[in-house]
Design goal:
By secondary structure, this protein is of the alpha/beta class. It has helices spanning 18-29, 48-55, 66-69, 73-79, 91-98, 105-112, 125-129, 131-142, 168-179, 214-225, 253-263, 306-311, 331-342, 382-400, and strands spanning 6-11, 33-38, 59-60, 83-89, 117-121, 146-147, 151-154, 160-164, 189-194, 199-200, 206-207, 229-234, 246-249, 268-271, 278-280, 300-302, 320-327, 346-351, 363-364, 366-370, 373-376, 380-381. It folds into two domains: 6-179, Rossmann fold (3-Layer(aba) Sandwich), CATH 3.40.50; 189-285 and 294-400, Rossmann fold (3-Layer(aba) Sandwich), CATH 3.40.50. The chain contains 14 helices and 22 strands. It has an eight-stranded mixed beta sheet with strand order 13-12-9-14-17-18-20-21, sandwiched between helices. α1 packs parallel to α2, α1 crosses α9 (168-179) and α4 (73-79) crosses α6.
Length: 401
């Protein structure tokens, strides 16, 4: 926890400023005291009222405020705290900080600071890669500033590349690491399955599904950021390995089950993979030729049930087991049946019918199904779904402790 730690958050201009609101909320949840400086550019994306409501503190904006500067506000703000976080850190603010400019409250406070500074850069990929920006970053790091991100991914401008601000939970993890604070899932062990499985017909062809692995990978990353030692058992997917996660790659459902068993014992198991229910009973030793007599019958046999296996009572059962129900009809009813049949603790039910964009998309609409009821979440990014699920797991573990 960060109880009593005093954080000054500088919010500069850029679309990523909206993420600062989530960062404030997470810091306050952990007991940190947050003050915020909102630059003129930052105020184009988030309002002072939103920042003040979440931080439960006054928002500072003006260098030449009669009330603030009568108390030497930029000096006081830079000294009466434990850590300064700049998120997002725009290219402009980084340049001014590197060159010692002090023409607004944010730059003046940063120049006057005698406390550590953590920057989370956010900008267009070309701006980030520009030699001027890289030179400024090198200068700031040489002066002892800490940095988190940026990441590669979809940018607000429509391009894809580096320059995307680190996610709020990643910034939070960096702050906790600085203070040496134990993350909420520190000491826990988690298994997450992700992506599709593929079941071979012959050495060339196979049966599979449309799962991209985006949701499972996001969940593994969210649990790892909260301190859990996380093993990701991943089927074939183009998703990059999440930071701080041990990845074990498999292809078939049988291989996935074996990898999950090898990762036990665990406190948490999240079965987000789209596991093939069936596999060919016989795999041809050679490629099946086009001239083979048609119709070509394929005899199928049932695959092992990974979710039910991990949920089975016994000493090896994780304390919390979460499954997914990807359905095209009767979503909630089928999810409730699955919860009862598998013996797991939670089911995340999502609609994967044509037109939803769930498979391969960046967003998801899920319903959290538990024995005590159903909680419907709004349409969220898959990263936000992962954070909400991690929140739920964290609370349930705390209640059962």
């Amino acid at each position: 926890m960060l109880a009593g730690k005093r954080i000054l958050l500088v919010i500069s201009g850029g679309i990523a400023a909206y993420k600062s609101l989530e960062l404030i909320r997470r810091l306050r949840e952990r007991g940190a005291l947050v003050r915020a400086i909102l630059t003129k550019g930052g105020a184009q994306f988030v309002t002072p009222l939103s920042v003040a409501a979440l931080s439960e503190s006054k928002v500072y904006q003006d260098l030449f405020s009669l009330t603030d500067e009568s108390e030497m506000g930029h000096i006081r703000l830079s000294r009466e705290l434990d850590l300064i976080v700049v998120a997002p850190a725009s290219a402009d603010l980084l340049a001014r900080l590197a060159h010692g400019l002090a023409d607004d409250l944010a730059s003046t406070t940063l120049l006057a600071a005698d406390k550590p500074i953590l920057i989370a850069p956010a900008m267009n990929m070309m701006m980030w890669a520009h030699p001027a920006t890289q030179a400024n970053i090198a200068t700031l790091k040489a002066r002892g500033l800490r940095q988190i991100g940026p990441e590669s991914g979809d940018l607000a401008c429509g391009e894809v590349g580096g320059g995307r601000m680190a996610e709020p939970m990643e910034i939070l993890a960096a702050i906790e690491a600085y203070f040496g604070t134990a993350a909420p899932l520190s000491g826990r062990r988690a298994i997450v399955t992700s992506g599709p499985t593929i079941e071979p017909l012959d050495p060339v062809r196979f049966i599979a599904n449309r799962s991209s692995g985006k949701q499972g990978h996001a969940i593994a990353a969210a649990l790892a950021r909260r301190g859990a030692t996380t093993v990701l058992v991943a089927g074939p997917t183009a998703e990059p390995d999440p930071a701080g996660v041990e990845v074990r790659r498999i292809e078939s459902a049988e291989e996935m089950l074996a990898a999950c068993r090898a990762a036990l014992p665990a406190d948490i198991a999240v079965c987000a993979a789209a596991v093939a229910d069936f596999r060919p009973a016989k795999v041809a030793a050679q490629k099946i030729k086009k001239g083979t007599a048609a119709p070509l019958p394929i005899e199928l046999t049932r695959n092992p049930d990974i979710l039910a296996t991990l949920s089975a009572p016994g000493n090896a059962r994780p304390r919390i087991v979460v499954g997914f129900a990807a359905e095209t009809e009767d979503l909630i009813a089928n999810a409730k049946k699955k919860l009862a049949a598998k013996g797991c603790d939670l089911i995340l039910a999502n609609d994967v019918s044509a037109g939803t964009g769930t498979f391969g998309g960046t967003e998801n609409t899920v319903h959290l199904v538990a024995a005590d009821g159903v909680e419907s979440w709004p349409r969220l990014s898959k990263q936000e779904v992962a954070e909400r699920l991690a929140d739920t797991i964290e609370r349930r573990l705390a209640r059962s402790a």
